[in-house]
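Please, structure for the following, as tokens.
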Amino acid sequence: MKIASLVVHVKPEHIDALSASLRDIPGVGVHGANVEQGRVIVTVEDGEGYRMEESILAVNGAPHVMAVTLAYEYTDEGLTGELEPPEPIPGLPPKVADGAGGAQD
């Protein structure tokens, strides 16, 4: 499953027209708008026959859209339930054992 939340910037006088056109894009849900600031809040989910990324591009290219900001993205693809330890960053000292060398010491 993939899901993203977007803030779509639009001139206030075009919010209703934009909201209607966004609802025609697969996987897009319109959840609210701030008319004074010209912002529309939408979610985009992937689904059968389309990808979330394609729907985000369609939102970006919709009539009256001035800008799109990605506020949140989630995917559970590739999750195994096992976390791999991160690779050490060259030039940084090795991690100090828990409880030693902290800010309170």
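The helical segments are 15-22, 52-60. Residues 98 and 104 are 12 Å apart (CA to CA).
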